[in-house]
Amino acid sequence: MQPRNMSMSGVVDLAAVKAAQEAKAKAEQARAETARQGGGGAVSPADLVIDVDEAGFERDVLQRSTEVPVVIDFWAEWCEPCKQLSPVLERLTVEYNGRILLAKIDVDANQMLMQQFGIQGIPAVFAVVAGQALPLFQGAAGEAQIRQTLDQLVQVGEQRFGLTGLTVDPDAEPGGVAAAAPAEAAGPYDALLEAAVRALDSGDLPGAVQAYKNVLADDPGNPEATLGLAQAELLQRVQGADPQQVRKEAAEKPGDAAAQIAAADLDLVGGHVEDAFGRLIETVGRTAGDDRDAVRVRLLELFEVVGADDPRVIAARRALARALF
């Protein structure tokens, strides 16, 4: 559901809250059922940290991300900051006891994955949640910051996607994480959502957009389709753009709504969430009439891409309200 004016923003928020509540209830029911059955399918604590390469990425990251948020640690043997960060991530992953999975990717051995994620420096930490990738942080980070980020990630995974995590048994034999959990009964829109993901993977952005729209036509509040559509439309907008030219025009025309909107799209695709939001909020203050409305609508669309529960979105909503009123 794409907001077209300010009156729609409340509808979007209410739909997101309802979807979050339903997803949380499902997650709690799934955990209770697992406990009732004696914790079948448990994995060893040793299985919570895995090495991943390009060949196993779909199985070990994408598929696993439908059960548990997968944190990706991009590292290299020569990277000294990586040697400080990686042990902290590994320890915290075990401490979170199945609520996250840590996938370690050596960038020297997996250049294609590095390029696909747009990694420009390491250490770099991303997450994949229900097949959706999002940047967490780059460079050195303190343990308190990492804990806060992981807490937010777990919350988003549970509330927006109903991810129940992995059941951990200290006595389980290592190696259990490689076996996929039993599949749940297919939902009414699973085939359409899978078609959308396949279209994204193949670069068929118009096909992905249409597949997500097909789901939303019958189920306007579907959180996975709402997020997927926002992301697919964003990728479609930046496809073929010349980043250098877009940023040059934005720098030369600070009050031009179209130039700033195009640059904000690139900012977000590059993982610079705060820059994208800040750019558009500043442009709201510089523009009026239809231009201002176009900037505001695009900002609301980018909120959908990042997610209503993200603290950066919450802060940006407050800043937008100040800029508008």
From TrEMBL:
Domain Thioredoxin: 21-155
Gene Ontology terms describing biological process: cell redox homeostasis; response to stress
Domain of life according to the entry: Bacteria
PANTHER family: THIOREDOXIN, MITOCHONDRIAL
Name under which the protein is recorded: Thioredoxin
